[in-house]
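chain below, 188 aa
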Amino acid sequence: MPARPKSLSVAAILMLVYGAMGLMGALQSLLVSTGTLTPPGGSTSPMGAVLRSPEYRETVRILIIPMLVGGGLALSSGIGALRGRQWGRRLGLCWGVWALIVGPVGAWVTFSRIVPILAASPAPPHMTAQQAMIFHQVMQVIIIGVSSLGVLLGLAIAITVMILLTRPQVVLFCKGISQPAGTPPPLA
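prediction:
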């Protein structure tokens, strides 16, 4: 069997890492939504108040399902692509479309549901009113910034994987069609 194209290996590794991170995120979200996970500083910290919020827990429970689906899709397609299987390549393309749709929706949920909960959370008791206002604004900027960065990175990874999986040499390799060494891939 010919050597696996490097672009297929890169796409497979990206999907494996993304899938593993998605499944770990789903596990963390499950722990948060059940109250098992407590933030540093305990339940009296500002994040503790957010994590105890019923609205926050409900939102996180809703987000677990797409995280499990996306993580499972990425992980299984990464395994299939690493083995050079056509189903792994096709599943990887499906995951790419899924990530392009779900990423912005997840960001919208974060901006519309999580940020307002954080804004309404109590500040640490030792802070003055002005310090509490600054604290909330900084936390909102951090949440919005990290969420935006995560969405942009996820979209870039999904687009990169889809491009790599549609390269002619990857398509031929996954179909099991060997090509003589030094022959350029057919233009399609």
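The chain is about 75% helix and 0% strand. The two ends are 23 Å apart (CA to CA).
thats it, cya
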